[in-house]
Amino acid sequence: MLSDSDDRTLVIALISGGGSALMVAPVEGVTLADKGQLTDSLLRSGANINEMNTVRKHLSLVKGGGLARLAMPADIISLMVSDVVGSPLDVIASGPTVADTSTFADAWGVVEKYGLTGQLPASILKHFEAGMAGQIPDTPKQGDPIFDKTVNVVVTSNEIAAGAAIEQASKEGLNTLLLSTWVEGEAREIAHFATAIAKEIEYSGNPVPAPACIVAGGETTVSVRGQGVGGRNQEMALAAAIQMAGLKRSLIMTLATDGSDGPNDAAGGIVDGFTVEKATRAGLDPDSFLANNDSYNFFKQIDDQLITGPTNTNVNDLLFILVT
Questions:
Q1: Which of 12-21, 42-51, 302-311 is predicted most confidently?
Q2: Which of 15, 59, 69, 115 to pair with 320, CA 20 to 30 A apart?
Q3: For residue 165, how far is the Cα from the chain centroid?
């Protein structure tokens, strides 16, 4: 359809989280299976979403401004639902209508950083080598005339969702604080920090006194070492449960706003100072489940999964720290 565009054509693009995975058109010579293999390796390595998209944009005809290139000379209005920390336009769904700030060299740097050079399919290795040698054009950059008639607008984001949560918590009579919507890093490490905040409120009343609701947003990562089933939010909740054992007045909830925390039906998990005790009575060892990246089955067995079903809107993850 885009190949038939002319200067009287209006293209309205509705872009949301998941676009990087679902809107695919591999470059010539690279199969979808090849891209899938690399994406799986990146996911398991602990690469963040910006790094993953840097790689994927350089293997696609539509990502990294490719859609705008295909639609030229049409007018383009792109309305975006952001699932990316900070909402950088070129990262949301891998920026199909946005000038790309990354290069082939950047993409190759991600591959090297996570030690994946030996895992690349031959077709992808060949494409990257040609790109770095200047034998094929890079993704379109700022100033390219293909973007002269393109308007990109973020219509909702993690920041908006976190703000709505704070507003509702205030209406419920809680003392609130929006901590950050830039939370990134290893899920179990963020759990340590979240637990530290809960402990601080219980013992000192800082940074806000009880009854307190602290909200944070962003997207963590998991370096997969075990064979279990889980997701970044459930892993964070499990790690938090271990750290907050014995706390009397605190609860931590983590969730994916689209209702799917990884390849399972849970949105996240809910834990408090009694979760470990509850698990122990059920004959479960939380540390073993965490070591095996098996948070899904841990919470399923103690009925502390957060199940929302699909929400049909993905604006990253939310973390709630509640202290009574």
A1: 302-311
A2: 15
A3: 19
Residues in a beta bridge with 14 = 79
Task: Tell me how far apart the alpha carbons of residues 183 and 201 are, in angstroms, rounded to a whole number.
Answer: 20
pLDDT tens digits for 265-278? Answer: 999 999 999 999 99
CA–CA gap between residue 236 and residue 230 (Å, rounded): 10
Return d(Cα 255, Cα 304) in angstroms, integer. 12
CB 30 within 8 A of CB 63: no
Kindly report the number of other CB atoms within 10 A of residue 300's CB atom: 18
Strands across the sheet containing 10-15: 10-15, 75-81, 150-156
Q: Which helix or strand (DSSP H or E) is residue 113 part of? A: helix 104-113
201 close to 208: Cβ distance less than 8 angstroms:
yes
- Using CA atoms, how far apart are residues 190 and 106, in angstroms rounded to an integer? 27
Nearest-angstrom CA–CA distance, 37 and 219: 22
**Sheet containing 212-218: order of strands:** 175-183, 212-218, 317-323, 250-256, 268-272, 305-306
**Bond prior to 96 in cis (omega within 30° of 0):** no
One-letter identity of residue 125: L
pLDDT 10s digits, 176-200: 999 999 999 999 999 999 999 999 9
Q: How far apart are CA 119 and CA 153, in angstroms?
A: 37
Nearest CA-CA partner of 70 in 15, 23, 1, 12: 1
HSE of 152 in the Cβ direction (CA atoms, 13 Å)? 22
9 token code pair: 């054509």
Predicted TM-score (pTM) of the model is 0.80
Q: Residue count of the chain, please give it.
A: 324
Q: Which residues contact 170 (CB under 8 A, 6 or more apart)?
A: 176
Rounded to whole angstroms, what are the CA distances from 166 to 134, 162, 173, 178?
49, 6, 11, 7
Token representation of residue 206 = 């800082």
What letter represents residue 238's amino acid?
L
Sequence-ordered strand ranges (E) for the chain: 10-15, 75-81, 150-156, 175-183, 212-218, 250-256, 268-272, 305-306, 317-323
